[in-house]
């Protein structure tokens, strides 16, 4: 046994964790080693950071912190009781992963008991002292015991992420429930025999808690549900809350929807609100399906879940380098799918895997919150194969990206929660983080960056204007009108409706979806767009103009987003259940823009003295009350000439998926002066970017060049960090924006698919072309794909041939 004297010289540095000190005793901050790893985990008694065997010596050499608590966890399987086969099957009641009532990723896996073994280790030499040992110095004993007693930071983060989330039961209390207006109209609701007041439907009925109206609910994407009478009633009256009849329980619970808040909510006074209409909740019992149960049925009915997960195939598990799964940390599949795809591009591998030793060598003071460190840790963990270890059930142990998820979601109102999110929105968020953390190194996302060229032609003068902007994805519309199997879809819908009317259900495997040719999506994107109210600087008046969009450059890797998520006429989100014939290989030369042609005449530069647009303040206020972004509201009023709320709201609904929907609005054809830009920038945005070390003049210039959009301004200013000299004039327009360019031919190497009817629920999986074979990554399940469902994807990554 080592001599206690080895500890003496280090006692002055030993600390006790403070009340807000996080103790990282679950996992190495530089790798996915943990107490269950063969070499265990070493927790510094100074910084309380945890290290695997591969990094603890480097940390000691860098900091001189020599004393660690070593944790080695032993797990033993618990014998399973014999199954009789007649026990009840666990019912899925929530559209969530890894929460009570949801899809359990651990279901069916063996259960274990865990025993932790502790010792105190002093470096160099890894001198070991057993724990507990009454002869250890008092500071060491107190510090070790505090580490053992400390709450896991992963658990703390989980609890924080669950605050205010909805996992199928936990909902926000409606702001309208406290002082809800209820009319004294004498209406009394009978205990049964309900029917919609505007049609003959007797199911999916909603009781308005203000006037007692009973009306049918919204129509679902597959044609089932109601006839939208309840939501129409809200639009006519403004009465905000309704409860679904048949879901009310004796405890005073039920499915309550707030039309004003556009969400399922909690009404803590539901029993009292129902009593107003003569309903005694103690005499009620649940007789109808909840909204969660209906959502689950819709998913199962479409057959999408089985198809995308290849449930009908006997998938062969794969293991090894670049075949590492990611454990689902409660609806984190959207993160898992995006990062799996990101690390298939050489730029990301070079920066964060091959460059990991350089990144780790810096040993920042707070590696847990260092984006580059945690991204490198994730990349090495995924590609090394070190954690691609088979588990007893034929899957693999994989890695759990706790630190990465917590870091990328930090301070973000959506990604910090445990709710399901849109993989595309997370991709855009990740691009912003990469840009912010690539000031002194090449940004790996540059391999995805391309220049978009817009050509606008004045219909009266025939003069043109070309503008370019940088993008990292190509959004393609999905035109349902271009479906090639309309007759078959109609026949299927008729059979399905007939089956449901008789209480039966068609086999989900036989579902017939509209088939949309990829060419139709491409043509829809390339179609000429008419722009009203365009200010022609050639004529100094507003005219009609025509815009076409092309690509000025073609990136090494092209990410295509199919715009499957849309807004229905009743303003509810919906997903198009379609099959798009995405090509394995494609030539996109038809998308190539050519810039100003010799026979074209340019529009003169717009004058900064052009009269500013006016907006009807009453209409603007009404649109803002509907929840639309202010800049989008301004656009709608401008393009509809302040003609009324219906025209403006219709414009908003049609343009919600536009690339620049929320960007700062500049009337088409106008150009703000530099002085105006400086005067109109948002001061909060200026301060936010200045906090990163830039001068006010630089920040104002960046915000002015990007219409005041902070994210785009960051991209603008970081991409010019080495050129920003305010004494130099602003450089002229660069048609390529510094983007890489090359041939327009590509092959498909990965795609991400979504299961479910909304981005906020369901599940994501990805398929990746690995060494000539397609592999399915379904969280920690990695297997050889037999039937890659490329026609049902959402995001597609193409590599230049």
UniProtKB/TrEMBL annotation:
<keyword id="KW-0645">Protease</keyword>
<dbReference type="GO" id="GO:0016579">
    <property type="term" value="P:protein deubiquitination"/>
</dbReference>
<dbReference type="InterPro" id="IPR015940">
    <property type="entry name" value="UBA"/>
</dbReference>
<keyword id="KW-0863">Zinc-finger</keyword>
<feature type="region of interest" description="Disordered">
    <location>
        <begin position="591"/>
        <end position="612"/>
    </location>
</feature>
<feature type="active site" description="Nucleophile">
    <location>
        <position position="333"/>
    </location>
</feature>
<feature type="domain" description="UBP-type">
    <location>
        <begin position="172"/>
        <end position="281"/>
    </location>
</feature>
<feature type="domain" description="UBA">
    <location>
        <begin position="614"/>
        <end position="655"/>
    </location>
</feature>
<dbReference type="InterPro" id="IPR001394">
    <property type="entry name" value="Peptidase_C19_UCH"/>
</dbReference>
<dbReference type="Pfam" id="PF00627">
    <property type="entry name" value="UBA"/>
</dbReference>
<dbReference type="GO" id="GO:0008270">
    <property type="term" value="F:zinc ion binding"/>
</dbReference>
<dbReference type="InterPro" id="IPR018200">
    <property type="entry name" value="USP_CS"/>
</dbReference>
<dbReference type="GO" id="GO:0004843">
    <property type="term" value="F:cysteine-type deubiquitinase activity"/>
</dbReference>
<feature type="binding site">
    <location>
        <position position="199"/>
    </location>
    <ligand>
        <name>Zn(2+)</name>
    </ligand>
</feature>
<feature type="binding site">
    <location>
        <position position="229"/>
    </location>
    <ligand>
        <name>Zn(2+)</name>
    </ligand>
</feature>
<dbReference type="GO" id="GO:0006508">
    <property type="term" value="P:proteolysis"/>
</dbReference>
<keyword id="KW-0378">Hydrolase</keyword>
<dbReference type="Pfam" id="PF00443">
    <property type="entry name" value="UCH"/>
</dbReference>
<dbReference type="InterPro" id="IPR041432">
    <property type="entry name" value="UBP13_Znf-UBP_var"/>
</dbReference>
<keyword id="KW-0788">Thiol protease</keyword>
<dbReference type="InterPro" id="IPR028889">
    <property type="entry name" value="USP"/>
</dbReference>
<dbReference type="InterPro" id="IPR001607">
    <property type="entry name" value="Znf_UBP"/>
</dbReference>
<keyword id="KW-0479">Metal-binding</keyword>
<keyword id="KW-0862">Zinc</keyword>
<feature type="binding site">
    <location>
        <position position="196"/>
    </location>
    <ligand>
        <name>Zn(2+)</name>
    </ligand>
</feature>
<dbReference type="InterPro" id="IPR038765">
    <property type="entry name" value="Papain-like_cys_pep_sf"/>
</dbReference>
<protein>
    <recommendedName>
        <fullName>Ubiquitin carboxyl-terminal hydrolase</fullName>
        <ecNumber>3.4.19.12</ecNumber>
    </recommendedName>
</protein>
<feature type="binding site">
    <location>
        <position position="216"/>
    </location>
    <ligand>
        <name>Zn(2+)</name>
    </ligand>
</feature>
<feature type="domain" description="UBA">
    <location>
        <begin position="680"/>
        <end position="720"/>
    </location>
</feature>
<dbReference type="Pfam" id="PF02148">
    <property type="entry name" value="zf-UBP"/>
</dbReference>
<dbReference type="InterPro" id="IPR050185">
    <property type="entry name" value="Ub_carboxyl-term_hydrolase"/>
</dbReference>
<feature type="domain" description="USP">
    <location>
        <begin position="324"/>
        <end position="801"/>
    </location>
</feature>
<feature type="active site" description="Proton acceptor">
    <location>
        <position position="763"/>
    </location>
</feature>
<dbReference type="InterPro" id="IPR016652">
    <property type="entry name" value="Ubiquitinyl_hydrolase"/>
</dbReference>
<dbReference type="InterPro" id="IPR009060">
    <property type="entry name" value="UBA-like_sf"/>
</dbReference>
<keyword id="KW-0833">Ubl conjugation pathway</keyword>
<comment type="similarity">
    <text>Belongs to the peptidase C19 family.</text>
</comment>
<dbReference type="Pfam" id="PF17807">
    <property type="entry name" value="zf-UBP_var"/>
</dbReference>
<keyword id="KW-0677">Repeat</keyword>
<dbReference type="InterPro" id="IPR013083">
    <property type="entry name" value="Znf_RING/FYVE/PHD"/>
</dbReference>
């Amino acid at each position: 046994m080592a001599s206690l004297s080895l500890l003496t010289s280090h006692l002055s540095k030993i600390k006790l964790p403070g009340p807000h000190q996080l103790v990282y005793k679950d996992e190495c901050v530089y790798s996915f080693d943990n107490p269950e790893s063969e070499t265990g985990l070493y927790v510094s008694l100074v910084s309380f950071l945890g290290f695997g065997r591969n990094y603890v010596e480097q940390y000691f050499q860098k900091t001189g912190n020599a004393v660690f608590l070593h944790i080695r966890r032993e797990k033993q399987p618990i014998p399973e009781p014999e199954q009789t086969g007649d026990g009840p099957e666990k019912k899925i009641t929530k559209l969530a992963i890894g929460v009570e009532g949801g899809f359990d990723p651990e279901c069916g896996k063996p259960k274990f008991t865990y025993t932790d073994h502790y010792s105190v280790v002093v470096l160099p030499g890894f001198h070991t002292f057993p724990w507990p040992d009454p002869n250890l110095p008092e500071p060491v004993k107190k510090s070790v015991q505090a580490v053992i007693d400390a709450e896991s930071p992963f658990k703390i983060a989980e609890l924080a992420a669950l605050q205010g989330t909805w996992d199928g039961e936990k909902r926000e209390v409606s702001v309208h429930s406290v002082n809800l207006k209820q009319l004294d109209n004498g209406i009394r609701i009978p205990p049964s025999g309900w029917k919609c007041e505007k049609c003959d439907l007797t199911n999916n009925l909603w009781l308005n808690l203000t006037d007692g109206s009973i009306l049918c609910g919204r129509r679902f994407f597959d044609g089932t549900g109601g006839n939208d009478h309840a939501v129409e009633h809200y639009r006519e009256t403004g009465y905000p809350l309704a409860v679904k009849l048949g879901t009310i329980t004796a405890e005073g619970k039920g499915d309550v929807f707030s039309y004003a808040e556009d969400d399922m909510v909690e009404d803590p006074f539901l029993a009292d609100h129902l009593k107003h209409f003569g309903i005694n909740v103690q005499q009620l019992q649940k007789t109808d399906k909840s909204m969660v149960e209906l959502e689950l049925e819709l998913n199962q009915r479409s057959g999408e879940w089985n198809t995308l997960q290849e449930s009908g195939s006997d998938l062969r598990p794969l293991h090894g380098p670049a075949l590492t799964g990611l454990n689902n940390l409660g609806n984190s599949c959207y993160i898992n799918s995006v990062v799996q795809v990101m690390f298939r591009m050489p730029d990301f591998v070079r920066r964060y895997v091959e460059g990991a030793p350089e990144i780790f060598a810096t040993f920042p003071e707070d590696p847990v919150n260092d984006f580059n460190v945690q991204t490198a840790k994730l990349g090495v963990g995924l590609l090394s194969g070190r954690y691609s270890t088979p588990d007893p059930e034929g899957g693999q142990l994989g890695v759990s990206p706790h630190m990465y998820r917590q870091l990328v979601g930090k301070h973000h109102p959506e990604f910090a929660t445990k709710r399901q999110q849109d993989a595309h929105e997370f991709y855009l968020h990740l691009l912003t983080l990469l840009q912010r953390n690539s000031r002194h190194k090449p940004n790996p996302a540059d391999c995805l960056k391309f220049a978009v060229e817009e050509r606008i032609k004045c219909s009266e003068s025939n003069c043109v204007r070309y503008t370019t902007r940088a993008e990292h994805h190509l959004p393609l519309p999905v035109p349902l009108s271009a479906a090639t199997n309309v007759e078959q879809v109609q026949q299927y819908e008729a059979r399905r409706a007939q089956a449901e009317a008789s209480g039966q259900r068609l086999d989900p495997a036989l579902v017939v979806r509209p088939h949309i040719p990829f060419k139709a999506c491409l043509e829809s994107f390339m179609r000429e767009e008419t722009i009203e109210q365009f200010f022609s600087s050639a004529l100094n008046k507003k005219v009609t103009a025509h815009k076409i969009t092309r690509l000025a450059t073609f990136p090494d890797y092209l990410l295509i987003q199919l715009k499957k998520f849309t807004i229905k006429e009743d303003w509810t989100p919906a997903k198009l259940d379609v099959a798009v014939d995405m090509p394995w290989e494609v030539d996109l030369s038809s998308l190539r823009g050519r810039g100003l042609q010799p026979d074209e005449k340019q529009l003169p530069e717009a004058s900064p003295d052009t009269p500013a647009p006016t907006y009807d303040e009453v209409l603007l206020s009404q649109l803002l009350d509907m929840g639309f972004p202010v800049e989008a509201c301004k656009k709608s009023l401008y393009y509809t000439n302040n003609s009324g709320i219906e025209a403006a709201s219709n414009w908003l609904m049609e343009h919600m998926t536009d690339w620049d929907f929320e960007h700062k609005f500049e009337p088409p054809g106008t150009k703000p002066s530099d002085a105006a830009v400086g005067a109109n920038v948002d001061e909060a945005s200026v301060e936010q970017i200045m906090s990163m070390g830039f001068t006010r003049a630089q920040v104002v210039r960046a915000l002015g060049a990007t219409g005041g959009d902070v994210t785009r301004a960051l991209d603008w200013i970081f991409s010019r960090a080495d050129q920003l000299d305010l004494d130099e004039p602003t450089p002229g327009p660069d048609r390529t924006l510094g983007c890489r360019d090359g041939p327009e031919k590509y092959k498909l190497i990965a795609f991400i698919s979504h299961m479910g009817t909304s981005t906020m629920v369901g599940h994501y999986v990805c398929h990746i072309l690995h060494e000539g074979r397609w592999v399915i990554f379904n969280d920690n399940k990695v297997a050889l794909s037999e039937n890659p469902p490329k026609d049902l994807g959402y995001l597609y990554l193409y590599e230049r041939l």
